[in-house]
């Protein structure tokens, strides 16, 4: 990517030079001093992080970097030891995950959480934002929720069609392949009309034939006006679709910027090389195209 287009991205997204914690022009998430430790291990130690609205941000880093833990904190599935963060300008500390999702922030899991003994359609319905049927007045006036139940069902079927799962609507979720479960999880997340969708390794364990379709769906989320934050450790994958990349290592944000810039950042190369992950090393060195790299750990 020529430097000029990289600079252009910069000025639209960040208010300063690409560096960990750089403020964004229109942040949807702002986090400050968020830490989470497990015993002696500091899994997350984020001084400042802003996620820009309306773009695709990739959160990358070697295994154990703290990406999933950060996701859990931001989405209310876990509580930090210190820190505060906000979503759409509203402070989120202490707000449980189901309320966070009603506010418009949904996430999917690295290990999919489709309920195997429910049908695909039933799984979708569970993703709907307000279940009127749960409310007292709806049980007194059942027709009000019956109407809503119909709306939910047609929305679910529409989304299933978009994700090419409509033929499976009545099958148990257990019968889906790994990739189809990932698609189901993404489709289910959309049932609540989120403004921010957070995907934890949406491509992990997915048959390569489905990877492209998942990537297309992620780009499509942005086209539908959503902000997307996704975790991935394959840099090459990230560079195809991300507008902005945030790199974590050992709990900290070590770099952020447009994909082309980040992949040349020595801190990023160090983070991956330091992780001794053969696969990551191959991908990273292949991508950034340094002379003599590929297997050559010593020459960074
Ligand atoms: N519930 C937990 N209890 C103890 N240690 C944990 C727990 N969750 C995560 N960790 C540790 O925190 C670190 C970060 O993990 P994680 O957030 O899953 O990393 P990533 O998603 O980047 O691979 C790892 O060292 C992991 O072993
Ligand atoms: Mg993880």
- Indicate how many domains the architecture comprises: 2
**Total number of helical segments?**
12
CATH architecture of the largest domain: 3-Layer(aba) Sandwich
Strand order of the largest sheet: 6-7-8-3-9-10
Helix/strand order, N-terminal first: HEEEHEEHEHHHHEHEHEEHHH
Helical residue percent band: 25-40%
Please describe the biggest sheet, giving its number of strands, its sense, and whether it closes into a barrel.
6 strands, mixed
Note poorly predicted spans.
276-300
The third-level CATH topology of the largest domain is Rossmann fold
What would you say this structure looks like, in words?
This protein has 300 residues and is of the alpha/beta class. The chain has twelve helices and ten strands. The strands form two sheets. Strands 6-7-8-3-9-10 form a six-stranded mixed β-sheet, with helices on both faces. Helix 4 (120-126) runs parallel beside helix 7 (178-190) and helix 6 (142-162) packs across helix 7 (178-190). 40% of the residues are buried. The model is unreliable at 276-300 (pLDDT under 50). Adenosine-5'-diphosphate (ADP) is lined by residues 38, 41, 43, 61, 63-69.
